[in-house]
Amino acid sequence: MEQNTSAKIVRGGSAAEGVAGLAGIVLAILGLLHILPQMLLPIATILLGVAFLFEGGSVASRFSKLLNETAKGRFETSELSVGLTTEIIGGMAVIILGILTLLNISPAVLMPVAAIVFGATLLFGSGVTARLNHLEEPKSEEYQAFRDVAREAVGVATGVRILLGLSAVVLGIIALAGVNWMVLTFVSILCVGASDVTNGSAITARMMGVMHK
Q: Which of 28, 29, 79, 139 could form a disulfide with 189 if both were Cys (CB 3.0 to 4.6 A apart)?
């Protein structure tokens, strides 16, 4: 029962991450269509920062406990601390950058920097998603097909997270050099939002697999 409670908390935080990521994608698309881009850019940045906090902050302690219960010593849960701490710090950093941009403080600098922070956070946090596949499977065969799909989804989400993280870093660096910074930052937000949706969906499915006894 306690393990299921932990899984439900992780699942809830990951679902919220996916929803926030989807909202960020919508705002980025609207911005690229020239609908209030100067306002939507920092708002989308703040929203995705909140998504990072959902994953790295609200479920961190329960995530570690769940892994201790289900990984059976196959790896040290301290390995997760880097990814989770990075997501908390990265989320807080981009939220601050978004708020400063809303106050019209150097948006051409702060938004590309936020894109770089986004990408770096995705790269360092990718290990959290990858290690979900170390969770112990329930013995019942009833949900085996579902659990197999969930395991594959986690593997795909990890690869997507790394690729999109690298893309966001590169786009942020180019934008910081002054090359069409607003458009490139919006594209990087699309990358981060897509990663959040993929990652949130994969973790939610994986936690449902853990809960199926």
A: 28
